[in-house]
Each structure stands twice: as C-alpha cells, then as structure tokens.
Design a protein that fits this description.
The structure is a single chain. The protein has 10 helices and 23 strands. It is of the alpha+beta class.
C-alpha cells in the first residue's frame, strides 16, 4: 500500500520545518560511524540516491536502511512524522510540582481510558524514544511487589531527556527530548474503517522545573523553545508549594508535603516567564496575549479537594471522569462539565492565589483550570533514604487524562464525541492540519 506524505513536516527535536524529500537517512553499514553533528558512535546521516523496490534507502556502503533523521539537527525521527498531523503539547512547572508523575500517570491512563471508553488506540510511536516515560509507568503501575513504595527520578537539567547536537563544531546545543505517541481509531471505532485519515501524533516535552526560572533558557541550552511551537501549553501548579494553600490545608490534611519547612515557590512568576519566552520565540509583542490555550493543572488534588465547592456549597466531584462510552465504538467527553469545574477552580484561586489567575489570563487567550492527582494518595517518608515515596497499592490517579482528551474533543471531532459541538477559535488547530487529507 502506498503511503501519503505531508507537504512538509516539523522535526520534534529542533522544530525545523522541511519537505519530505529533504529527509536524511541513517546509515546501516557498521563502518559508517561519526556523524558530523552528533557523536563518533552515531551512524552517518545521508541523502540517498538509491532505493530498493521495497522503499529502503541504500547507504554509501551498500547497506539497506529504513531509519530517518531530521535534515537540520540529524536526530532520528519516526516515519509517521512525515505522514500524520502532529500536536505539540508542552509541560511547564516548578521543581517538585509533580510534572513527571503527572506525565507518567497520564500516559498510562490514556492507554487504558481511550481504549475502554473511546475505542481509540494510544500507543508509542517509537518505543525507544519513549523509554523514560514507559519506565516510570512501569514503576507506578506494573510493579509486581504491591507492598513496595517507589519514587520516580526527578527530571534533571541535563542527561537522557536532552539530546546534544553540535550545530557549531565543538559547541554542544542541548535540545529537549520529545515523547511521541500515536492516536488512531481502533477497529471497533465508528470511523475505524479509515484509520489512516484520522491518525495523529501527540508530541510532549518534560523539562526540569529549573529550566523555567528566568535566565535558564540560553542559546546553547534552548530547552524550552518548544513552548513557542506548541499548540497546547500546560502549567502544573502545586498548591502545596503555596503558603496560603498550606495554611488553609493545615487542619484538613496530614500529607507530609504540607509539613513545616517544605519548599514554597512563586509559581505565578514562572507563568510570566513562560509567556515571555513564548512571545519572544513566536515573534509576538510584549503586550500581546498568547493565542494558544493554557491548561493550568492543579496537581495533588487528593490533598486540596475539600477546598473546592460547587455553587451551592457542596463538595465538587473531581474524582469521577468527565467522560464515558456514548455508544458502541464512540466515547463522549463532557466539555461543559470540565469548563464548569474550571470556573469553580478559578473562583477558589481568586480567593487564595489571585495573582496566579491574573498572570495566566493576562498572558493567554484561553485558560482552563484542571484538578489532577497523579497518584491519588499521600506519599510516605522512607526512613532509609529520607525520600517521599508512593505506596504502589494505593495509587489511584484522578483526572490525569482530562487535558488530553479535552484537546482531542476540541480538535478531533471524528475521534471523540462531546456535548459542545461549536468550534472554539481560541483553542487553535494543529500546526500540520493543513496537510491532513480532507476526504
């Protein structure tokens, strides 16, 4: 079967846009090592002139290869980048706000929930590229020892989640490592007869929280420039790092993250810095609102949920998911319920941390507040290591999938049903949507 390529693609590593015929290939011959932009151990990248009848490129030493690379940064890219529209989603937040736990929990639950309720497959586009997240998923959700308590590694400023490229000889530039997932209708989906027309990619980034402090983004470490390329932005706000929330929760929860002396952070300043970077890299004026949606993810909702009340003063349900299977082969997201919950969280934030609401709404055209708990339970202090760890048997995520399924409901009308059919101009469209097959 022939494969239809887009007119242009965006590299998920360096965000360079290029035509498919400019794509480089990765040499397979064992003697072709030492790419000029990468390391001496990396295979050479080349522009092929010979192909096999099966579509494999023939490298300069005669070996066949199917591996592709970006013509700008030379980092490897999946074939589907050339074929499917891609939604870039960037995640920001302070150190220890729970970004990595949220991302691992959300990806695991998306695999389950999209299949169970929506007949949609959510899979790794390239398992090797997603190894860091799948390892974290395994620790939290596939641990054989249900009596264990675990802690996933903090995202560091350097290391495996960044790729080094020498655009200038001898000078390394660190690019954020992308995690890429394929979203497509399953066979029993109502539109499962033509999955290639509805398949899209979700590309996500998880930076160390320190990368979002003022001055941390430099020419040689442009780790957060994906913020300007993203169609959807997420900021993880941790109420346990806010003094005023801590004071309100003192008599409500005994969670160790509320213990005296725990760290606090001016998280509104990180939103201001986040917006500043987006404006700079996107060429917007300093006074312009960013024309992209911002999800403000209020993490650790299992701790602060008692503070959230409905209009009549009763506790809000932020445990039951706002979606369900509508009929065979189709799931339905309640956008109205999410928006109503967002309004109530905004009211709470205006009472407790009004500067956060002001910073977000002054900078972004559309702000949606989402309550999330990545683990659904309090961590415990491990006396041996002095670290807070998660009891595996008590993990019960809440609403971690909502920002992603909400995005699908807004953009992918043929994948997910919703209770609000009208469009939303402020929610934007995928950057590659012009290349989608409209038939």
């Amino acid at each position: 079967m022939s494969r239809k390529l887009k007119s242009s693609a965006v590299c998920p590593h360096c965000w360079h846009r290029f035509r498919p015929d400019q794509t480089l290939w990765v040499a397979a011959h064992p003697e072709l090592l030492g790419d000029r932009l990468l390391t001496p151990e990396d295979p050479v990248r080349f522009l092929p002139s010979r192909f096999t009848p099966a579509g494999e490129a023939i490298d300069p030493s005669g070996s066949k290869t199917r591996r592709l690379a970006c013509p700008n940064c030379h980092l490897e890219i999946p074939q589907l980048v050339l074929e499917c529209p891609m939604v870039i989603m960037s995640l920001a937040g302070s150190p220890s706000s729970g970004k990595s736990y949220f991302l691992a929990s959300a990806m695991w639950k998306l695999r389950e929930e999209l299949a169970r309720h929506f007949s949609v497959a959510f899979t790794d586009t390239d398992p090797a590229m997603n190894r860091a997240i799948t390892n974290n998923e395994g620790q939290l959700f596939l641990n054989e020892d249900q009596s264990a308590s675990v802690a996933i590694d903090k995202t560091e400023m350097e290391g495996a989640q960044y790729n080094s490229v020498q655009f200038d000889p001898g000078v390394a530039t660190m690019l954020a490592h992308p995690f890429i997932f394929t979203v497509r209708p399953s066979r029993d989906h109502v539109n499962g007869h033509a999955p290639h027309r509805l398949t899209q990619l979700f590309t996500l980034y998880d930076n160390a929280g320190e990368h979002f402090f003022p001055g941390a983004d430099t020419a040689r470490a442009p780790g957060t420039q994906h913020l300007a390329k993203a169609q959807v932005l997420m900021f993880v706000f941790d109420p346990t790092q806010d003094v005023r929330f801590r004071q309100r929760l003192a008599g409500v929860s005994g969670d160790p993250q509320l213990a005296p002396g725990a760290k606090t952070t001016r998280q509104d300043q990180l939103i201001v810095e986040m917006a500043r970077r987006v404006r700079i890299h996107a060429g917007l004026a300093p006074q312009d609102r960013v024309p992209k949606p911002l999800f403000v993810i209020l993490s650790k909702s299992d701790i602060w949920a008692p503070l959230l009340k409905d209009e009549d003063g009763t506790p809000m349900d932020i445990t039951t998911p706002p979606y369900a299977r509508e009929r065979a082969g189709l799931g339905r997201m309640s956008i109205k319920r999410v928006d109503r919950t967002s309004d109530r969280i905004r009211t709470l934030l205006c009472e407790v941390a009004p500067e956060l609401v002001s910073a977000a709404e002054d900078a972004f055209e559309r702000v949606i507040f989402i309550p999330v708990s990545a683990i659904g339970t309090s961590p415990v202090l491990d006396p041996a290591s002095g670290l807070l760890k998660v009891p595996v048997a008590r993990i019960a995520p809440r609403w971690v999938t909502v920002p992603f399924i909400y995005t699908l409901a807004r953009w992918s009308t043929h994948l997910v049903s919703s209770d609000k059919s009208e469009g939303d101009a402020s929610f934007g469209t995928p950057s590659d949507s012009a290349d989608m097959d409209p038939s």
